[in-house]
């Protein structure tokens, strides 16, 4: 029965790939093993001034355009002087985006690096670190914001596949962490670094798997007070509209978060079984998620609020971009959410923060939010990798 389910899932995926995007909007497939799989991709429309104006945020917050016509911006980081570096995986570039007069709108958008598939970015000690699929690069940041020639630190990261977009982030103690997503929806990976979080020293030493069983944890970071590591993992596709839900994990050294054998709070998908033990035995050893979120919402960027411009109740909370679903009847995601943390650093809930990118009865969207970073003035910068807009969310209320 499990093998039959796998074959059906592969067939459905292949059929989806063969369909034009317009056909995917009305396509629905019902699997025989009890999984009703819907495929619906809201049509992309322009991010007009009128549409941007109707975005909704909590009272006192404003959502404006920081930059536009930037291609397909993905991840972004902010330097101490306020310069913003943004990756575009489609062009394989890193852009310098600068708001010199500090009016909340960038005047300069300029490419400063180019290598195929550049995606993840991290800053440390005047250097910009960049990842492509298999490479990790570093460059010095020059006084004018441009970069020196890129130096290759690693060229043997795990192969691409379904999740080729590596992300990187520095821990409070200066270690570099790299997320390597799975090559597939659910399978036994040959490379033990796939579907993991990898810890890397920038001198080339000490590379090791920090945590495994993470299908695709693009957004991750450290709680400002407790220094605990948190990340939002992508759930398995093809299990229906409501499964697999996205997982918020406290990521601990040596822990196994279950993929591909276990999901949610111990559920077992119809996919490959672990060797030498039952799925139930394997599930008992895995670490369960702290919070679950809407299936297929596709969490991407994650940042903790350490600024002082937001109200006190937002301090040390996290903000996460939900890129948006494609394989459920009613769209999920297409928004930014807030993860609440209590004074002890425990995640207590997830709620909407910025919404409104879905329009026309959820049949259309004008933004697939992706990267997120906190600017030096405390505002949030959010990329849309579909329409090329970088949004700015600031607090001006009392």
TrEMBL record:
<keyword id="KW-0732">Signal</keyword>
<dbReference type="InterPro" id="IPR054539">
    <property type="entry name" value="Beta-prop_PDH"/>
</dbReference>
<dbReference type="Pfam" id="PF22807">
    <property type="entry name" value="TrAA12"/>
</dbReference>
<feature type="signal peptide">
    <location>
        <begin position="1"/>
        <end position="23"/>
    </location>
</feature>
<dbReference type="InterPro" id="IPR011042">
    <property type="entry name" value="6-blade_b-propeller_TolB-like"/>
</dbReference>
<protein>
    <submittedName>
        <fullName>PQQ-dependent sugar dehydrogenase</fullName>
    </submittedName>
</protein>
<dbReference type="InterPro" id="IPR011041">
    <property type="entry name" value="Quinoprot_gluc/sorb_DH_b-prop"/>
</dbReference>
<feature type="domain" description="Pyrroloquinoline quinone-dependent pyranose dehydrogenase beta-propeller">
    <location>
        <begin position="56"/>
        <end position="393"/>
    </location>
</feature>
């Amino acid at each position: 029965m499990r093998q039959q389910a796998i074959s059906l899932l592969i067939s459905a995926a292949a059929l989806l790939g063969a369909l034009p995007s317009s056909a995917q909007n009305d396509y629905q497939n019902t699997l025989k093993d009890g999984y009703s799989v819907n495929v619906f991709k809201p049509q992309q429309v322009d991010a007009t001034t009128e549409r941007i104006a109707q975005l909704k945020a909590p009272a006192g917050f404003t959502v404006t355009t920081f930059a536009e016509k930037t291609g397909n911006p993905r991840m972004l980081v902010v330097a101490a002087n306020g310069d913003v570096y943004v990756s575009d995986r489609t062009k394989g570039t890193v852009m310098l985006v600068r708001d010199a007069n500090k009016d909340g709108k960038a005047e300069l958008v300029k490419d400063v690096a180019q290598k195929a598939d550049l995606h993840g970015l991290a800053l440390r000690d005047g250097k910009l670190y960049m990842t492509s699929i298999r490479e990790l690069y570093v460059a010095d940041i020059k006084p004018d914001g441009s970069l020196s020639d890129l130096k290759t630190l690693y060229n043997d990261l795990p192969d691409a596949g379904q999740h080729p977009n590596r992300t990187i982030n520095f821990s409070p103690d200066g270690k570099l962490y790299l997320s390597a997503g799975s090559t597939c929806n659910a399978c036994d990976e040959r490379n033990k670094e796939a579907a993991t979080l990898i810890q890397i020293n920038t001198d080339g030493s000490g590379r090791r798997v920090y945590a495994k069983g993470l299908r695709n944890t693009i957004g991750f970071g450290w709680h400002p007070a407790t220094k605990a590591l948190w990340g939002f993992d992508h759930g398995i596709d093809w299990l229906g509209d409501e499964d697999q839900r996205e997982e918020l994990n406290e990521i601990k050294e040596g822990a196994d978060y279950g993929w591909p054998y276990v999901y949610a709070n111990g559920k077992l998908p119809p996919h490959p079984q672990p060797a030498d033990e039952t799925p139930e035995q394997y599930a008992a050893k895995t670490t369960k998620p702290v919070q679950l979120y809407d299936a297929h919402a596709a969490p991407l960027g994650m940042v903790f609020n350490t600024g002082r411009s937001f109200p006190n109740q937002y301090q040390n909370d996290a903000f996460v971009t939900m890129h948006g679903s494609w394989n459920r009847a009613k769209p999920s995601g297409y928004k930014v959410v807030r993860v609440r943390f209590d004074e002890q650093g425990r995640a207590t809930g997830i709620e909407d923060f910025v919404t409104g990118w879905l329009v026309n009865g959820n049949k259309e969207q004008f933004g697939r939010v992706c990267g997120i970073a906190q600017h030096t003035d405390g505002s949030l910068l959010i990329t849309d990798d579909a329409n090329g807009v970088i949004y700015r969310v600031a607090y001006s209320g009392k």
